[in-house]
Amino acid sequence: MRRLLNGLILGAASLIGVVSFLYPFYHPPKQQAANALAHGSDSLFVLGLLIVFCLVAVLGNLEASRFNSKMVAALGVLTAVNAVLRAVPGPAGFAAIFFLPVLVGYVYGPTFGFLLGALSLLVSALIGGGIGPWVPYQMFASGWVGLTSSWLPDLRRWWRVEVVMLSFWGLMWGFVFGAIMNLWFWPYAFASGQESIYWQPGIGLIETLKRYAVFYGLTSLWWDVGRAGGNALLLLFFAAPVVKLLRRFKRRFHFEPWRK
Fold it and tell me: How far is 248 from 240, CA to CA, in rounded Å?
């Protein structure tokens, strides 16, 4: 029953995220422009919904006795650490944004991973003054990094293979995160003379995918290379000791977060 509750909460939150990213394609904006303000009228509502779901996830597990003060403390500390890691500038667009969500989601399960990914982006935005209509969409995408990391098989018996798997996962999410995040503004953007890389109402699914592929390749691909490569290297060198530490904390304090 508890796992079903967690699944329903995560499923509902993720569904809201998917709808938030995709609804402009079905309800086109009245005006598209190169400097169009995407989601200026609805981002606050989406942010509020996401925060509510995060609170429901915490309170629901607290009520079910699967959450205690140690878990609250662990979530708070890890959220703060990940927010700081994101704020540390790196070369070529690199930021250690996926390191902890990948590892925490892998060790502690989907709900803990989703909460860490989403809340750390919110805290980072508040600390850095980067609040804008893009924040809830970054929270969803980062939360999905932690959530989906729980799907990876437990390979603790083959730690070298485990490290390679986690490194590849971080590499993949470096590109997927960028591809997802472009969607928060792409339906709103348009520039005359560059129609081949922008979406227009009525062009159809295949043409939309073609235009988006060109847009992604020309705009954010090389930026994502730095992020993907940096996180992959970070995981390759530091995943093993951090995973070991997370598992030790779990055993030592009888830490039983939302399991896979």
Answer: 12
Q: How many CB atoms lie within 10 A of CB 196?
A: 11
198 lies in some domain = yes
**Helices 99-108 + 159-182 axis angle, to 10:** 120
Look up the domain containing 227 and give its range. Answer: 2-20+31-252
Write out the two tokens for 157: 């018996």
Output the CA torsion sign for 18, 19, 23, 24: negative
Specify if 259 maps to a domain: no
Is the pLDDT at 259 greater than 60? The verdict is no
- At residue 56, the pLDDT reads 87
CB 174 within 8 A of CB 229: yes
Q: What is the mean pLDDT of the chain?
A: 86
What's the confidence (pLDDT) of residue 37?
64
